[in-house]
Design a protein that fits this description.
alpha+beta, DNA Primase, Chain A, DNA primase DNAg catalytic core, N-terminal domain, 3 domains, four-stranded antiparallel sheet, 14 strands
Length: 299
Amino acid sequence: MTFDIEKFIEDNEIQFWDTGPNTQHGWINIQCPFCDDDTNHGGFNLRTGHYNCWKCGWHNTVELIKEILGISFGQAVYIQKQYQNYSAIKKKTQIDNDIKEIKLTNKNKLRKCQKKYLEKRKFDADYITRKYDLRDGGIAGPQAYRIIFPIYFENKIVSYQGRDYTEKSWPKYKACELKKEALHHKDIVYNIDNANNECCVAVEGLFDVLRLGDGAVGTFGTSFTRKQVILLSKRFEIVYIAFDKEVQAQKKAHELGNMLAGVGVESYILDIHENDPADLSELSAKMLMKELNLWKSHK
């Protein structure tokens, strides 16, 4: 699925060049609205539908539509969807039909102290326990005093992470032992089975995903892997990135966006008003996902 730039240009009567200076085969050029371009340095790739200015660099399509038409972000997202070219070949969505599943013996009924921790973080403990199959790490063993987050892929539990709920143990997050994982957790993204649209919101952590719900996927920290980038490129046409506001996190967010753009995925960085997506109120999270056309009733 690609952006039908030719129809968009025609419908909105935008001046363009397909021959002459600054043009090349397979591209349509316009005057770039993002810089002091006085000719036609802005170019659309006719095969992928992506935009790049030879003066100021790459920009995602939603930003471009917003700038050219002088409309809101939400309106630009809507228009971008109207010009999707559904005749393009769909990307492969399944990477392995022979994935094994690991067995978790942990009880999926949380204790009062664990629920209290979730409620303190303003989550509906009973709902997210059911929704994400959260489990009790027990009071002994490697995951003691932790909440277990099973990691599903293709509806199979392939790994898990434990989160300390006492705020006394280190590290806060403890991954499944490598030898026990069916798939390494950094080869996939959390909650991908609940992100079935052509677009998703990529966040850092588990609680960021829980706050945003369906349509959000987690990279298990700011450090992402090549395999995660490939998986995102196979599953989604558009990836919105909502990492924390810290400088290093934002740097990694831009790196992820650039890598996704390099493999033909529309990507852009979301600016949320909280430091961390998990800190958003339920209403703010709902409004954000609605603006991205990703919201659906979760309960």
